[in-house]
Design a protein that fits this description.
GO terms for molecular function: ATP binding; ATP hydrolysis activity. The chain is of the alpha/beta class and about 325 residues long. It is about 40% helix and about 15% strand.
Length: about 325
């Protein structure tokens, strides 16, 4: 808990921990008009008769608020979100040969591409990270968080997920509209300003999707691209998972570069398995997978960065042609 309950004003406490309002209400303490007071100052302003009438205990109230905030932070998983680095310690490939590196650390704000032939082991690497492998998977890799062996609850908790994974195939089975789905997720995260957050998610999703959709659209009616756009926006804005794993975003039918920029703006670590040269070069580094193991790790060179500009020009032309086809237009040489 970085903010001191004893030294902070009630306004500062509620600004940082909005859920603390529920605790104060339960104690019949009205904050309105006393936002500039500390809790101790507020209690001291009450007469002895008021203290006695309400059966208030100053020390127990302050300690109770500290305990309540700590418990809520643990419940929401916010303390564990402070992940600044992810380290992969080498294991072995399918033949049992040592991988081509010793250890590799990825820091917040970095994009790492994972490349290799189909079936080479890209998904296995994503699986090791999601499972927070501790030399107990077929690759014998070990995953460290902030340079340390992570708490085992990262592996088993359903609420404190270290990793959010966006897979190639994404299908909804619930009979809900987009708005109902997002509100349900926001409620489970105890978000205070749900309407505002839901509007932000739908706006970002429509900015990524090729074809826009409405809050009233049933989630089972969303196309593959719309589903991926919705889940990328939902993951970036609502999910507290600090690490995002993406499997072949190039097949999602969305604005790929914009999606990655959006995820990075939320201070995530992003790893993506890809066959797309543009996405691979957008990464700070790329992991090359061969025969089930990490063969080598390459840092994107200045020459490759220069090539990326040319690749992006070609990609924009292809995207424009795709949009023209969707509109039912006839393609011409001039349109290319």
């Amino acid at each position: 808990m970085s903010l001191s309950v004893k030294e902070s004003t009630l306004g500062e406490i509620l600004n940082k921990y909005p859920f603390a309002a529920a605790y104060l209400e339960q104690q019949n303490l009205k904050v309105e008009g006393r936002e500039n007071m500390s809790l101790n100052e507020y209690l001291s302003s009450l007469s002895e008769d008021e203290i006695e009438e309400r059966a208030l205990d100053r020390t127990a109230l302050i300690e109770g608020l500290e305990s309540y905030i700590a418990q809520m932070l643990a419940f929401l998983g916010e303390e564990e979100q402070k992940v600044s680095s992810l380290s992969i310690l080498s294991g072995a490939d399918k033949s049992g040969e040592p991988e081509g590196f010793d250890d590799f650390t990825i820091r917040t704000g970095e994009i790492i591409a994972i490349v290799g032939p189909t079936g080479s082991g890209k998904s296995r690497l994503l699986g090791d990270i999601e499972w927070v492998a501790q030399r107990d998977t077929p690759t014998n890799r070990q995953i460290l968080i902030n340079g340390k062996v992570p708490d085992s609850k990262w592996r088993f908790s359903t609420s404190d997920k270290l990793v959010a994974q966006l897979s190639q195939n994404m299908n909804f089975v619930m009979d809900l509209t987009v708005e109902e789905f997002l509100h349900l997720h926001a409620e489970s995260r105890m978000v205070e300003n749900r309407d505002e957050v839901v509007r932000k998610i739908i706006s970002c999703a429509n900015d990524l999707a090729g074809e826009k959709f409405e809050l009233t659209t049933p989630i089972t009616s969303l196309s593959g691209g719309q589903s991926r756009a919705l889940m990328i926006s939902d993951t970036a804005i609502l999910s507290r998972s600090p690490i995002i794993l993406i499997d072949e975003i190039e097949n999602a039918g969305i604005d790929r570069k914009k999606a990655l920029s959006f995820l990075l703006s939320q201070e995530k670590i992003v790893l993506m398995a890809t066959h797309d040269p543009m996405l691979a070069l957008l990464g700070d580094k790329r992991i090359v997978i061969k025969n089930g193991g990490i063969h080598k790790i390459i840092e994107t060179s200045s020459e490759e960065r220069a090539m990326l500009e040319e690749i992006e020009k070609v990609d924009r032309k292809v995207q424009n042609l795709r949009a023209s086809l969707r509109r039912g237009e006839i393609l011409t040489r001039e349109s290319f």
